[in-house]
Design a protein that fits this description.
Oligomer: heterodimer
Largest sheet of chain B: none
Distance between the termini of chain A: 35 Å
Number of strands of chain A: 0
CATH superfamily of chain B: MetI-like
Helix content of chain B: over 70%
Number of helices of chain A: 16
Shape of chain A: flat
Number of strands of chain B: 0
Strand content of chain B: under 5%
Order of helices and strands of chain A: HHHHHHHHHHHHHHHH
Number of helices of chain B: 14
Radius of gyration of chain A: 26 Å
Radius of gyration of chain B: 25 Å
Strand content of chain A: under 5%
CATH class of the largest domain in chain A: Mainly Alpha
CATH class of chain B: Mainly Alpha
Number of domains of chain B: 1
Largest interface: A-B, 113 and 109 residues
Helix content of chain A: over 70%
CATH superfamily of the largest domain in chain A: MetI-like
Number of domains of chain A: 2
Distance between the termini of chain B: 53 Å
């Protein structure tokens, strides 16, 4: 093959006539085809179901036979006091989780970074990462047992110290914090590994320069380490913006009980109850639509912000 | 020279403090599972009176005997195994088939951006629980194991991960393959896939673990309990019954007392697969995070 033919072929690969391009790229379209179909059926078709939020849906009439009620469902929901407490709970728990899931992993990764012993570091990382891989069904059982006010291990310790047992999962005061704490327990290992990886990316000569200038470890942390991971921290914060309405259905559903609905019920658990248990399809869809819309705005904004300030591109 | 570097007292103090905190955190992550293991090997009397700490009290394998005979447990386990064995390869196949075209340059594959947005939109907005359920119902997948597999077959997050990985492979390789007469299919399977082994291994593991841990879809899409995967089964049998314990401070039902060790045994058995693969493949799990950088 001479150079001329090769160059022409590369050029054709890149631009060329549309028919040549299409023929060469036909396999690509075919590869994408099944994925498109699946996404169309299971991701896009449900979007049509949003109409139910504007109807008084009944299964016999179906989508096109149910009476149109316009914004009535929305008005009804806004008149329910529960709606507001549910939205507030979602927001409260989610924001607490986001803040804690930034502070704890960063702190732990800074601490871990100071450890010289490689083996200790590896073993610690392995162990703290482990809870991430357990399902909340398993962990809910473990925690319901551990946090039991009657014979749970935690309360046994509390009682031994002379205090009264705490109803971690049964008191409206404690429930949100229990959710946040158990979630941190499960996920801090994951974040720690990310930040540790970022820490190893900091230029060591910066530390050397700081030492020469006479700074101690603490000053080094403030002036070299923290600025060094600023990029990833900002990125984390920005991306988590999209999660502000996801307070953690998997976790909360498995540890929620009617006693703590006032502070523990979140949007997703309410949608589940309304739709799957009470069969109030229209109302459940309305709440779900509200959440999807707000999430859409938040996630899109967060990706846009991440792109602008941290140079983050999805693709 | 024999000069030692002087370590300041405060540094030593800090390191002691540091190690202590880290050990406490590590134990905090380990001990709950150790406690569950201990419970599973204890007698139910000891368990219900709260005597069991980190070691079994009145060692007995009765609870495991109970679980061994409980055929619902094993039936659900089988469903989960089926789900992982069917779902993971299919999901991986879809991930590869979608990530490759989307990783091509927009200059040579002009529809790339449209396709990419098509998939990304599904990440940004979804129809909600009820409409999704209705779609699955109208497609006739209720009570079928495919309801647990097909909807999740297009994991956009994994696709993005793999697509970024494919992008990092130099374009000259694709060009060289093209010059040699390879079409896209060949290039994908004979060049890109072998080069992506670490990324693929990581995705395979995450896929498998996610399928093993999934419980909600099994719960809502299966009407017959014999179709429940393991985690859904555990959810109905253990978590739902445990709700009673949360609010009572003193006596709880006799059934719950004797159940505690049995529950512990079932829990522990459900965790064993993860326990087994995790230490050996931990390397892939950790590279996986760094590959995907931060999850949104």
């Amino acid at each position: 093959m001479d150079m001329y033919t090769n160059t022409v072929r590369i050029k054709k690969m890149n631009k060329g006539k549309s028919s040549v391009n299409f023929r060469r790229n036909l396999p690509l379209h075919i590869m994408l085809f099944p994925g498109i179909i699946i996404a169309l059926i299971f991701s896009y078709t449900p979007m049509v179901g949003i109409i139910m939020a504007f109807q008084d849906y009944n299964p016999f009439g179906g989508l096109f036979g149910s009476p149109w009620t316009g914004l009535d469902n929305f008005r009804f929901l806004m008149s329910l006091p529960d709606t507001y407490s549910v939205i507030w709970n979602t927001f409260f728990i989610a924001v607490l989780k986001i803040i804690a899931s930034l502070i704890v992993p960063i702190t732990v990764s800074l601490l871990l970074n100071e450890i010289g012993n490689y083996k200790f570091k590896r073993i610690t990382q392995t162990i703290i990462y482990f809870p991430h891989f357990l399902s909340w069904v398993i962990l809910a059982t473990v925690f319901i047992d551990l946090l039991s006010p009657s014979n749970g291990a935690i309360n046994s310790i509390i009682k031994a110290m002379g205090f009264k047992p705490i109803f971690f999962l049964g008191s409206t005061k404690w429930f949100p914090f229990t959710m946040v704490l158990t979630d941190i327990w499960k996920e801090f290992g994951y974040g720690t590994i990310i930040y540790l990886a970022a820490l190893t990316g900091i230029d060591p000569t910066l530390y050397e320069a700081a030492i020469i200038d006479g700074s101690n470890r603490w000053q080094q942390t403030i002036h070299v380490t923290l600025p060094g991971i600023k990029g990833i921290v900002v990125l984390s914060m920005t991306l988590s913006l999209g999660n502000v309405l996801n307070a953690g259905f998997d976790q909360i559903y498995n540890m929620l009980s009617p006693v703590v609905y006032s502070t523990g019920d979140i949007i997703d658990t309410m949608v589940y109850r309304m739709g799957m248990i009470d069969a109030q399809y229209s109302l459940a869809t309305t709440v779900g639509l509200f959440k999807s819309l707000v999430s859409f705005v938040l996630i899109s904004t967060s990706y846009w912000l991440a792109g602008k300030f941290a140079g983050y591109r999805i693709f | 020279m024999g000069r030692k570097i002087r370590i300041s007292k405060s540094r030593i103090l800090f390191q002691v403090f540091n190690y202590t905190i880290l050990v406490i955190l590590t134990l905090a992550c380990l001990l709950p599972m150790v406690h569950v293991l201990a419970l599973s090997f204890s007698s139910s009397a000891a368990a219900s009176s709260g005597k069991v700490g980190l070691l079994p009290v009145d060692f007995t394998t009765d609870s495991y005997g109970y679980v061994a005979a409980k055929h619902e447990f094993w039936r659900a386990t089988l469903v989960s195994v089926k789900r992982v064995l069917l779902g993971m390869p299919l999901q991986m196949l879809m991930t590869v088939l979608i990530a490759y075209p989307l990783s091509r340059e927009a200059t040579s594959f002009r529809s790339r951006n449209i396709y990419t947005w098509f998939f990304i939109i599904t990440m940004l907005f979804n129809g909600g629980l009820i409409p999704t359920y209705m779609v699955i119902q109208s497609v006739g997948l209720i009570d079928s194991i495919w309801a647990l597999i097909v909807p999740g077959m297009v994991p956009v997050f994994h696709i993005i991960l793999l697509l970024n990985f494919f992008r990092s492979i130099p374009r000259s390789i694709e060009e060289a393959a093209f010059i040699d007469g390879a079409g896209h299919v060949r290039t994908l399977f004979q060049i890109y896939m072998p080069l992506s082994k670490p990324a693929l291994a990581t995705l395979i593991l995450f896929c498998a673990v996610n399928h093993w841990n999934a419980w909600f879809d099994g719960l809502i899409y299966m009407n017959k309990t014999e179709n429940y995967p393991l985690q859904s089964y555990l959810q109905t049998v253990i978590v739902q019954r445990d709700m009673a314990e949360i609010t009572t401070a003193d006596m709880f039902s006799l059934k719950n007392i004797s159940d505690r060790t049995n529950k512990a045994a079932q829990i522990f058995l459900a965790v064993i697969p993860i326990l087994c693969i995790y230490p050996f493949l931990q390397k892939y799990f950790t590279t996986g995070i760094v590959l995907g950088s931060v999850k949104g």
